[in-house]
UniProtKB/TrEMBL annotation:
Domain Semialdehyde dehydrogenase NAD-binding: 3-127
SMART domains: Semialdhyde_dh
Keywords of this entry: Amino-acid biosynthesis, Arginine biosynthesis, Cytoplasm, NADP, Oxidoreductase
Subcellular location: Cytoplasm
Function recorded in the entry: Catalyzes the NADPH-dependent reduction of N-acetyl-5-glutamyl phosphate to yield N-acetyl-L-glutamate 5-semialdehyde.
PROSITE patterns: ARGC
Chemical reaction(s) catalysed: N-acetyl-L-glutamate 5-semialdehyde + phosphate + NADP(+) = N-acetyl-L-glutamyl 5-phosphate + NADPH + H(+)
UniProt xrefs under SUPFAM superfamilies: Glyceraldehyde-3-phosphate dehydrogenase-like, C-terminal domain, NAD(P)-binding Rossmann-fold domains
The species this protein was found in: Aureibaculum marinum
Protein's UniProt name: N-acetyl-gamma-glutamyl-phosphate reductase
Length: 325
């Protein structure tokens, strides 16, 4: 059994990690580090874990665990690693945005591999450190990568994506209170969202000539979890051509599937799936992509990366069922 450590145990992503790893057949949770909750049971914070485990949060770190997940706020992972040393054999999977971009993906001489399995599976298998992608980035990249692979992204791309309230994390703000969010809808960070840089980087990895504009409008939905993204761009081909590209690109993907039917969020919430659907209107290709922002967009993908790094079955611990009704 591989020993796992989690840094930053009180947030949504840590809660999802704990839930998954408690039922993972190849690993055991060695510690979950949380200075603000040290000594408290996991179930005091993640209350659905009552009866699942008696483990408690700690303010001590075991530097010799096999893998550690960093569930810290953006900008805090690098600071944490500068202050705390793990063994040379410990694998690190960071869920923040600290190491996702090539310009800052090297830490103390070691490179963080961008952990999107559909893009970098072979590199992930041999990696020591992983930068787990962002939730919007995952959903949008999976909508566009097959087009980049075929060098057909030649025009501006328009993207509209809605995320649930958990995308904002557990800290309260004006736009996360129930009275504001309920029966409400709004956009934020129009055209400037921080995930645009990693989306561009991934597209350039497959299509080096890519220079088109990504016009991204992120939205807040009045639901708890999930991302519903639509993107459209000009496409010189038929819907059959597009479907062939996508199904070929994802034929060996463990969790990304091309659906011939229109999509809705209940198909993926509480799963590690990404579903993609294509629609053609005149010379425009519309791509719909949906994920659970906490699983495929964060913790589920992190466990998928861990499975690849250790040579486990890709789906180990991740055969989760949607809450459809």
């Amino acid at each position: 059994m591989k020993k796992v450590g989690i840094i930053g145990g009180a947030g949504y992503t840590a809660g999802e990690l704990i839930r998954i790893l408690l039922h993972h057949k190849k690993v055991e949770i060695n510690f979950v580090y949380s200075t603000s909750n040290a000594g408290n049971a996991f179930s005091c914070i993640h209350q659905d874990l009552v009866g699942e485990t008696n483990q408690k949060f700690t303010d001590k770190i075991n530097a010799d665990v096999d893998v550690v997940f960093l569930c810290l706020g953006h900008g805090n992972s690098k600071q944490f690693l500068e202050k705390h040393q793990f063994s040379k054999n410990t694998k690190i999977i960071d869920l923040s945005n600290d190491f996702r971009l090539e310009k800052n993906n090297v830490f103390q001489g070691a490179k963080f591999v961008y952990g999107l399995p559909e893009l970098n599976k072979e590199a992930i298998k041999s990696a020591q450190y992983i930068a787990n992608p962002g939730c919007f980035a995952t959903t949008i990249e999976l909508a566009l990568l097959p087009l980049a692979k075929n060098n057909v992204l030649q025009n501006d791309i328009h993207i509209n994506a809605v995320t649930g309230a958990t995308g904002a994390g557990t800290s309260l703000s004006k736009t996360t209170h129930f009275t504001w969010r309920d029966n409400n809808f709004s956009y934020y960070k129009p055209f400037t969202h921080q995930h645009l840089d990693e989306i561009n980087q991934s597209l350039l990895q497959l299509q080096s000539s890519f220079s088109s504009e990504l016009n991204f409008m992120p939205n807040r939905g009045d639901f708890s979890r999930g991302i519903f993204a639509t993107a459209y761009t000009k496409f010189d081909g038929s819907i059959e051509d597009a479907q062939l590209m996508y199904k070929k690109f994802y034929k060996d993907a463990a969790f990304t599937f091309v659906s011939d039917n229109e999509l809705h969020l209940k198909q993926v919430v509480n799963t590690n799936k990404c579903l993609v659907h294509l629609h053609m209107h005149k010379d425009k290709l519309l791509i719909n992509s949906i994920t659970d922002n906490l699983l495929k967009g964060a913790s589920g993908q992190a466990v998928h990366n861990m499975n690849l790094m250790f040579g486990f079955d890709e789906k180990e611990g991740l055969e989760l069922k949607a809450t459809y009704f």
